[in-house]
Specification:
Strand content: 15-25%
Oligomer: single chain
Shape: elongated
Pfam family, one: DUF2971
Strand order of the largest sheet: 1-4-10-11
Protein name: DUF2971 domain-containing protein
Radius of gyration: 22 Å
Helix content: 25-40%
InterPro entries: DUF2971
Structural class: alpha+beta
Order of helices and strands: EHEHHHEHEHEEHEEHEEHE
Distance between the termini: 31 Å
């Protein structure tokens, strides 16, 4: 499925009303952009950049590319001399260096990046069981166009038997690296039918910045789980803020 595949009109988030932190999506119109370090899937957003697969010519081109970025006033000869020196002393031939580099890269990436995971299917049995307290929770539907526009865009997640290879720049552009990193998961998660939206900060993405208050227009509907207790149904309905009283409620 290509990245430019149109996303569904409505995207959904499964939640558990018995968990206090999950209630804020209704009571405060708040979503949380999670750091990748909190993901249960240890490969999610952790695909290593494969410096070890570069040929000597690729490494040379890489250092020329970065030299032009870092030293715009240098001559062509200076760029090439610098790149040749760096290629001869390429630290990415050292497996220990690569391991340390990837660990630091992921720690920085996780601290600067936040993900909101969604699905296009409100009848996903696996999602109801795992993320909505075995049908005792709820599912909130968002108007995807409004949501993505407000948060800065979103895409479908692609699933692989083997995760894609990510090469360093310039063999893969930064944009390609990010898309492969963020929107790639292993095939065993395909039942989640996931879409994602995210935010990235050049600095630390603070905990406060990860909590996003959405506009009322971003909300489409509230679906109550088929086994939700009468008490929780009453509680969730009474917890809807006045500004959201027109929210469509669906009882399975």
């Amino acid at each position: 499925m290509p990245y430019n595949t149109p996303y569904p009109t409505i995207l959904y988030k499964y939640r558990d009303w018995d968990r206090t932190l999950h209630k804020s999506i209704i009571t405060q119109r708040e979503v949380y952009l999670a750091p990748p370090s909190s993901f249960t899937d240890e490969d999610d957003c952790r695909i290593p950049i494969r410096f070890d697969l570069l040929s000597r010519d690729d490494v040379f081109k890489k250092y020329v590319f970065h030299s032009k970025e870092d030293n715009p006033n240098w001559t062509r000869s200076q760029h090439r001399t610098h790149a040749k020196k760096m290629t001869n002393n390429n630290p990415f031939k050292n497996s220990t260096y690569i391991e340390i580099f990837h660990k630091g890269f992921f720690e920085d990436f996780s601290s600067q990046f936040g993900v909101l995971s969604l699905t296009g299917n409100p009848e996903n049995e696996r999602m109801w069981i795992e993320y909505a307290n075995n049908h005792q929770g709820f599912c909130i539907g968002f108007n995807s166009e409004i949501l993505f526009k407000y948060l800065g865009g979103g895409r479908v997640v692609r699933y692989y038997h083997e995760l894609p290879i990510i090469y360093p720049t310039p063999k893969h552009s930064v944009n390609t690296q990010m898309n492969l990193e963020i929107y790639s998961k292993k095939i065993q998660y395909i039942e989640e039918e996931e879409y994602r939206t995210h935010r990235f900060s050049n600095d630390l993405l603070t905990e406060e910045e990860r909590h996003i208050i959405l506009p009322v227009e971003a909300f489409n509907c509230l679906i109550l789980g088929r086994d939700m207790t009468p008490e929780n149904k009453e509680d969730i309905k009474n917890s809807i803020p006045e500004i959201m009283r027109n929210l469509r409620i669906i009882e399975i």
